[in-house]
Amino acid sequence: MTITPGVDAPTWPPEFAERYRAAGYWRGQTFGDMLRERAAAHPDRTALVDPAPERRTWTYRELDERADRLAAGFLARGIRKGDRVVVQLPNTGEFVEVVFALFRIGALPVYALPAHRETEIAHFCSFAEAVAYVVPDRHAGYDHRELAALMRERTPSLRHVFVAGDPGEHTALSEVPCEPSGPFDGPEPHELAFLQLSGGTTGLNKLIPRTHDDYMYSLRSSNEICGVDDGTRFLVVLPAAHNFPMSSPGWLGVLYAGGTVVLCPRPDPATAFPLVEGERITMTGLVPPLALLWTDAAAATAHDLSSLELVLVGGAKFSESAARRLEPALGCRLMQVFGMAEGLVNYTRLDDDTETVVTTQGRPISPDDEIRVVDDQDDDVPEGEFGHLLTRGPYTIRGYWRAPGHNRRSFTEDGFYRTGDIVRRLPSGHLVVEGRAKDQINRGGEKIAPEEVENIILAHPAVHDVSVVAVPDEYLGERSLAYVILREGAEPLKPVAVKRFVRERGIAAYKVPDLVEFVDAFPHTGVGKISKKHLRSAAEQS
Ligand SMILES: O=C(O)c1cccc(O)c1O
After folding, report:
1. Facing residues of 209 across strands?
2. Is the C-beta atom of 225 inside 6 A of ligand 1?
3. pLDDT at 530
4. pLDDT in tens, 391-443
5. What is the distance between the alpha carbons of residues 232 and 150, in angstroms, rounded to a whole number?
6. In this structure, which residue's CA is closest to atom 1 in ligand 1?
7. Beta-sheet strand order (sheet of 207-211)
8. What is the pTM of this model?
9. Helices 31-41 & 250-257, crossing angle to 10 degrees?
10. ipTM
11. Phi/psi of residue 253, nearest 5 degrees
12. Is the CB of 315 within 6 Å of ligand 1?
């Protein structure tokens, strides 16, 4: 169960770590201590607002105290430093309390999304050898307690299920807190803070080990770039466990700055606009499909959105035409952000001209973010030409959690992360994302590994072979299409039966193929392997 540094989670070579400390990037503070410091400096300021169903607020002092008591309760139940805890909570105050309680004792949250189901959660629990799983009772019509019971049966390491709300057969989260018996033996700043999820390209999600030092640096710099300060009122519209709304600059960045975080239960304008007005929201982050929806809804809304100063858009490519419409419609500044949970984050800047803001995906946070744009042989391409984006820097991981084989493919020998994105770099340093080399579908910001979905469909008795590819979609950017070859002599299937089969296997709904087509054969490459590129262009033409 214990973590061996450099083995379970590859880390920076000592000369890099020294350089990042000397440059002042890594400042030696943990998230637990950060909150403690803020609570001492401005105890009565509002840290957190959870507006639904009844408005609840937390001052910095209250959040700090509640995190302490919950941390003490977790310890009393045997959760220890280095233990992994799968946290699957919607945008509620409990999410923030749980995460800070775990930070304080050095247990590592594994950030599941509310949309995840049996397939994903079973993987996180077993691969991370989680000791606990934290869930809501019901969310969006789904009973998480039943899934939790199944996970307890199937995962030997899983000793606890904590439920926010009615616990059923499990333990109520509200029963956990107790009085701390003394200071916590917390983590060191260079140690892991949590495991974030990768978008995944090869089947199941990889886990991304982030340290207190490296993540705190990305927040602090994001705050400077985005102009976050103690007057910022940030609306968390996307699922709070996503890296973007957590750290770019996100709810953690805003708490770092002493601002106020408001948790939005659903991302639609009908839910969010009254909150923007009522809570005087100044900043938020959206994925492109939501940005479009908000842009269109703003024209007709009776709600006063004039408090909005900045909307960040990222997670998938934002079309230039949509980007041009956003600022006039919402009456605020647009900032594009191109980031990844593995590290590197790029922003357009507040003083960039409009053309740069609408046509690029920004430039890196740090002067020490090393960027290479290379061809298929890893040779640098001339400035301004397309190539694979490789990166290395003070907040980009050196390897995934317990994945040595995968790490040899995803990182160069000298530690550059192969992002899988195809970019072009402008003389200003801004990147333009042109496409993707990795086998992944980006469905409006939700990343899908085709292989994971293919493996599920292959289990259908009537299916001989399957290939899942991206097809362009005006609203989401991309949707998923499953090309299915049926077994000889099999009863014909309807597309809806394939979709139902995938859904019933227990997988996040966004991974269920949007389209299913039955074909006799896939286009093949010379070596007889399915050519995803070929399939993608066939899909684009159909
Ligand atoms: O993962 C992402 O897509 C992402 C987008 C914007 C900003 C981020 O930090 C991200 O991780």
Report:
1. 195
2. no
3. 61
4. 999 999 999 999 999 999 999 999 999 999 999 999 999 999 999 999 999 99
5. 42
6. 340
7. 171-172, 160-164, 132-136, 84-87, 108-111, 192-197, 207-211
8. 0.95
9. 40
10. 0.99
11. -60, -40
12. yes
Give the span between the Cα atoms of 142 and 302, in whole angstroms: 33
3-state secondary structure of 261: strand
Instruction: Supply 377's token pair.
Output: 């042989």
Instruction: Return the bridge partners of 49, or none.
Output: 57, 262
Ligand 1 center to 284 CA (angstroms): 14
341 lines ligand 1 (CB under 6 A): yes
What is the number of alpha carbons within 13 Å of residue 13 lying toward its C-beta?
7
pLDDT in tens, 78-136: 999 999 999 999 999 999 999 999 999 999 999 999 999 999 999 999 999 999 999 99
Q: What's the burial of 384, exposed, middle or buried (CB within 10 Å: 0-12/13-18/19+)?
A: exposed
Q: Which residue has the tokens 């079309």?
A: 319
Q: What are 518's two structure tokens? A: 């039955």
Residue where the block lists tokens 């053309």 = 355
User: Among candidates 309, 290, 289, 287, which has minimal Cα distance to 242?
Assistant: 287
Binding site membership of 244 for ligand 1 (Cβ less than 6 Å): yes
**Tokens representing residue 485 in the block:** 């070859």
Q: What is the DSSP letter of 411?
A: B
CA proximity to 470, closest of 514, 510, 434, 502? 514
**Pocket of ligand 1 contains residue 248 by CB under 6 Å:** yes
State which of 210, 222, 242 you would mutate to test the pocket of ligand 1, scoring each by most atoms of that ligand within 8 A of its C-beta: 242
The finding on whether 419 has its CB within 6 A of some atom of ligand 1 is no
CA distance 243 to 240: 8
Residues in Cβ contact with 396 at an 8 Å cutoff, skipping those fewer than 6 apart: 342, 343, 344, 369, 417
Describe the crossing of helices 93-105 and 31-41 by its angle, rounded to 10 degrees: 110
Please choose, from the candidates 242, 330, 262, 235, the residue with its C-alpha nearest in 3D space to the C-alpha of residue 292: 330
